Q: What sequence folds into this?
């Protein structure tokens, strides 16, 4: 029988943290209810199946262009989202399918966007790297370009005095971009409520971190900005780290750099097999010993939930993702007339320049204005 009010507190849930310019770190234990455990497990399974479906659609050529999968890194997103509040905002890189789902886009909204259908969250016009939702400023296809945008979102939180925190995610491959350090500087000068999250999955495209970075301690790279290293293959560890980040920023201490030590099970993108610069044995070992879904499943079945409950979730999620996948291949694309729709939030001009000056386009509004 499902426990609905029980809590499970265990020190072994939380992996040790490393601190930079911090007097203390996150909590060493985590409290979890059965309901929360089931929800987090369901989200983990959804993200994994969502990315598997994305990979299959790409191989079928139903998805064109680029496609970067998140499999293996789910504990980062699930733990962070579990701690985030409705007022908080987030922006990330092009590996954004999972975050779009967690921030409110349906599975169909994600998959239909990937296949270019009008039921996609951006009506099929954004594709894999450009998905948006409420408080989610999307994925950014330019390496590191989302970091100063995240600082801007943090400035908006401070200006509006709404108590929100912006989480800005970037990879270890983007960690050497100059614009990161410019954003760190401004955020510290203005004490912006920003958590700069480096998802260190060990490889920037096909280059290992120790070949690209003179310092691989990314949590210290903010220098004067405090930092935190997190074992991000564990859901509850990332949850507690995120709670700490929110507390740090909302107490007026300014920004925080958080390094999430994680691993991607696939290559950099679907065009990369991911085995030319790392061994198959390395990937296999990580799958067998560090899979965030397996780890979390072992944690919560000790005394919170039953294997039967998790099996029910597995079956339900599989059916839902399969149905969304099939629907994403059937739904229509937008009409040609809509190519010039919703370019501006406020439409001051009725005509939009085309590639030829004698063939202007009519600017139309499709998305509802709030």
A:
């Amino acid at each position: 029988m499902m426990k609905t009010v029980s809590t499970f507190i265990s020190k072994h849930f939380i992996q040790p943290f490393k601190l930079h310019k911090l007097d203390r770190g996150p909590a060493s234990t985590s409290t979890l209810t059965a309901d929360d455990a089931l929800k987090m497990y369901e989200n983990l399974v959804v993200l994994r199946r969502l990315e598997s479906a994305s990979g299959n659609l790409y191989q079928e050529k139903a998805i064109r262009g680029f496609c970067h999968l998140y499999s293996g890194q789910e504990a980062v997103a699930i733990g962070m989202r579990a701690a985030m509040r409705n007022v908080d905002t987030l922006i990330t890189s092009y590996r954004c399918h999972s975050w779009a789902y967690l921030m409110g886009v349906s599975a169909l909204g994600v998959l239909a966007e990937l296949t270019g259908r009008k039921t996609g969250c951006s009506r099929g016009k954004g594709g894999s790297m450009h998905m948006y939702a409420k408080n989610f400023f999307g994925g950014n296809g330019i390496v590191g370009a989302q970091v100063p945008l995240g600082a801007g979102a943090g400035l908006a939180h401070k200006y509006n005095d709404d108590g929100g925190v912006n989480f800005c995610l970037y990879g270890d491959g983007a960690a050497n971009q100059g614009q990161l350090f410019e954003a760190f500087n401004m955020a510290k000068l203005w004490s912006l409520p920003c958590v700069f999250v480096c998802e260190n999955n060990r490889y920037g495209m096909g280059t290992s971190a120790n070949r690209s970075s003179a310092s691989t301690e990314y949590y210290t790279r903010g220098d004067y900005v405090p930092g935190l290293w997190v074992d991000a293959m564990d859901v509850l560890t990332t949850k507690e780290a995120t709670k700490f980040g929110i507390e740090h920023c909302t107490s007026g201490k300014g920004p925080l750099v958080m390094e999430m030590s994680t691993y991607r099970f696939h290559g950099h993108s679907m065009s990369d097999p991911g085995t030319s610069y790392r061994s198959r044995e390395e990937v296999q070992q990580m799958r067998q010993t560090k899979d965030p879904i397996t780890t979390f499943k072992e944690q919560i079945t000790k005394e919170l939930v039953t294997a039967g409950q998790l099996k029910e979730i597995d079956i339900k999620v599989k059916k839902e993702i399969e149905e969304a996948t099939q629907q994403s291949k059937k739904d229509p694309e937008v009409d040609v007339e809509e190519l010039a729709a919703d370019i501006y939030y406020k439409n001051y001009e009725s005509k939009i320049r085309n590639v030829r000056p004698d063939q202007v386009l009519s600017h139309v509004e499709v998305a509802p204005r709030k």
Notes: Residues 1-7 have pLDDT under 50 and may be disordered. Residues 34-59 form the longest helix (26 residues). The chain has eleven helices and 13 strands. The two ends are 44 Å apart (CA to CA).
